[in-house]
TrEMBL record:
The keyword Plastid does not apply. One of its GO terms (molecular function) is GTP cyclohydrolase I activity. Residues 35-212 form the GTP cyclohydrolase I domain. Zn(2+) binds at C105, H108, C176. It is an enzyme of class 3 (hydrolase). Homopolymer. Toroid-shaped homodecamer, composed of two pentamers of five dimers. This is GTP cyclohydrolase 1. NCBIfam families: folE, PRK09347.1-2, PRK09347.1-3. The keyword S-adenosyl-L-methionine does not apply. It holds the Pfam family GTP_cyclohydroI. Keywords: GTP-binding, Hydrolase, Metal-binding, Nucleotide-binding, One-carbon metabolism, Zinc. It comes from Teichococcus vastitatis. The gene is folE. InterPro entries: GTP-CH-I_C/QueF, GTP-CH-I_N, GTP_CycHdrlase_I, GTP_CycHdrlase_I_CS, GTP_CycHdrlase_I_dom.
Length: 221
């Protein structure tokens, strides 16, 4: 594998620099520095990073982190920018239920696994449904707390698509509560963010919640 070693502090280039929810890092270490940090953690855990089984582990962990945290390079505004107006006046709720969610808790950097349900009430334009799942993914693949993740997904859809309302429910298990700390398996954290008509109209909110039928067992981690 080719590793480019650079000691220069590179300014991070978060995609959404114009947005209030952007999380700009002041600089990013090089790949080699990231791998060296993993080596330090292996030593600190009590193992030998030079034994055969661990030789490639720093590089593997760096690659895994690239995947886990690829959301920093995604711009949800861009993802939602393409919308369609030819809907013959469709103005009922559009619901995407059971979007698998894989995120990492910002306190312990361990997985948050669950599902998201996203709905909006079109005001003229609709968006490709995969884009709603991509927005969930763009925010989930960052270090998160569930409340912020839920708000970010709803806010970005509202801001870009400007529908009559947006509803987001996220149900997830936090491995920082199951594999460490308080050790309580089977606990689901449920968060919701209702905007526009979903916030002001209780019947609409009930209709959405009935459709998503939250509370079923969470997906396996
Ligand atoms: N509100 C909220 N809390 C979270 C989320 N993910 C993890 N937490 C909690 O964040 C808290 C961090 O608390 P601290 O006391 O600073 O950390 P800690 O000593 O590791 O806490 P314990 O997990 O209780 O062992 C814990 O209570 C976690 O359960 C989340 O998405 N939202
Ligand atoms: Zn945690």
């Amino acid at each position: 594998m080719n590793i480019t070693v650079t000691s220069a502090r590179q300014p991070a280039q978060p995609a959404a620099t114009n947005r209030a929810d952007a999380d700009p890092a002041p600089w990013r270490p090089s790949r080699a520095e990231a791998e060296a940090a993993v080596r330090t953690l292996l030593l600190w855990a009590g193992d030998d990073p030079d034994r055969e089984g661990l030789l490639d582990t720093p590089a593997r962990v760096a690659r895994a982190y690239e995947e886990f945290f690829s959301g920093y390079a995604e711009d949800p505004v861009e993802l939602l920018a393409r919308s369609f107006a030819e809907t013959d006046g469709y103005d009922e709720m559009v619901v995407l239920r059971d979007i698998r969610l894989e995120s990492h808790c910002e306190h312990h950097m361990v997985p948050i696994i669950g599902r998201a349900h996203v709905a909006y009430l079109p005001a003229g334009r609709v968006v490709g449904i995969s884009k709603l799942a991509r927005v969930v993914e763009a925010y989930a693949r960052r270090l998160q707390i569930q409340e912020k993740l839920t708000a970010q997904v709803a806010n970005s859809i509202q801001e870009v698509l400007q529908p009559r309302g947006v509803a987001v429910v996220i149900e997830a298990g936090h491995q920082c509560m199951t594999t460490r700390g308080v050790h309580k398996p089977g606990v689901a954290m449920i968060t919701s963010r209702m905007l526009g008509e979903f916030r002001t109209d209780p019947a609409l909110r009930r209709e959405f919640l009935a459709m998503v039928n939250s509370g079923r067992p969470l997906p396996e981690a």
